Amino acid sequence: MDSLPYAWGGPIGRAVLKDRPEDFRVDEVLPESPAGEGEHLWLTVEKTGQNTAWLARQLSRWANLPLRAVSYAGLKDRHAVTTQTFSLHLPGRADPVQPLVIDGVRVLSQDRHPRKLKTGQLVGNRFTIRLRQFDGDADALTERWHTLVEQGLPNYFGLQRFGSGGANLERARQWFRGEAKLPRGQQSIHLSAVRSYLFNTLLARRVEDGTWNRLLPGDFAQFREGQGGFLCEQPGPDDLDRLADGRLSPTASLPGDRTGETTAIDDWESTVLADEQEWLEGLSARRMQRARRKTRVYPEGGELSWDAGDPVFRFFLPAGSYATMALREAVTLEEDRHP
Q1: Residues 139, 13: Cα–Cα separation, whole Å
Q2: Is the pLDDT of residue 336 over 70?
Q3: Phi, psi (deg, nearest 5) at residue 82
Q4: 137 is catalytic
Q5: 311 and 141 in contact (C-beta within 8 Å)?
Q6: CA 66 to chain centre
Q7: CA atoms lying within 13 Å on the CB side of residue 337
Q8: Helical H runs in the chain?
């Protein structure tokens, strides 16, 4: 993460991230609420210091269900206070009678719904993050934060995507080379790590070139909300107006096999990734199709307040964007290492 170029001149201070779980709060935002009836029990909990996958296993035991009957939209930080919804498939069964008693877990609500909660079924997350031991200019930090809120920041993938010490990438490399096998259930996360690394490589070059927030001929532009967009063969005045006010952003590839005509941007991306053929061939061999991701993201509703000299950030990010990558544009983060 430290080697990725900054868009706004680099951090202007240092601070400690996640000194304690309550310093990093994440509230999940889903696209729908339970209807009050159906085969699936939607259970919303607040958890402190607990891993999402571990909690899913505890819920399967609590409800006497196979693990596959418990689902959630995505993983949440362990060293944090997070609100998250799980769905439990209970066809023809009543809700569990016994109370859910798990250390660090509090039930906020539960209700029935006709459909299960699917992986990726997430609008985004609201963050409240307190940094401690801030060493820097408070006024400069406030100004930088306003810049990020108003003008956006590079939509890099965070380190979490690659596993501890980049382990997911290393396992993917061994898998691609035939030196190791991956269970089917683990293949997706490793393919995602490879594509995330390649996307970061493309975005880093655009940050260096000053084009991460500009529309170039042949760019695929996406609207601020959702994944809809269009091929921008030659940006016109309306495109540039929407780019300037944040309604449109450029994209870069999540590499895979391409369809359709090749654009100038496709050729440019191929040049940038010329030394990454092992990754590209591995993705192609597994029939991955090229997708797109915005190069720019906004910390929506961004606020910065101060508490006893500590900066406290409040903002929303769409699903797939990383709070740590937003904060790094303003502050060098020294993350407390928990066991």
Answers
A1: 11
A2: no
A3: -130, 145
A4: no
A5: yes
A6: 28
A7: 1
A8: 52-62, 138-151, 167-176, 184-209, 237-244, 264-272, 277-285, 323-327
Active-site choice (19, 23, 77, 219): 77
pLDDT of 227 reads 84
Residue 337: pLDDT band (50, 70, 90) is: low
Domains of the chain as residue ranges with CATH: 17-128+299-335 (3.30.2350.20), 153-297 (3.30.2340.10)
Q: How confident is the model at residue 218 (pLDDT cuts 50, 70, 90)?
A: very high
**Does residue 339 surpass a pLDDT of 80?**
no
Looking at residue 164, what DSSP letter applies?
G
- Rounded to whole angstroms, the Cα distance separating 39 from 36 reads 10
Instruction: Determine contact, residues 170/217, Cβ cutoff 8 Å.
Output: no
Residue 303, Ramachandran bin (φ over 0: left; ψ between -120 and 50: alpha; else beta): beta
- Where in 291-338 does DSSP place strands (E)? 291-294, 296-297, 300-307, 310-318, 332-335
Residue 164: pLDDT over 90: no
pLDDT tens, 105-155?
999 999 999 999 999 999 999 999 999 999 999 999 999 999 999 999 999
The SS3 call for residue 138 is helix
Spatial contact of 7 and 207, defined as CB atoms under 8 Å apart: yes
> Looking at residues 192-209, what average pLDDT do you find?
98
Is the Cβ–Cβ distance between 251 and 219 less than 8 Å? Answer: yes
| C-alpha dist (Å) from residue 249 to 78, 141, 231 | 32, 25, 12
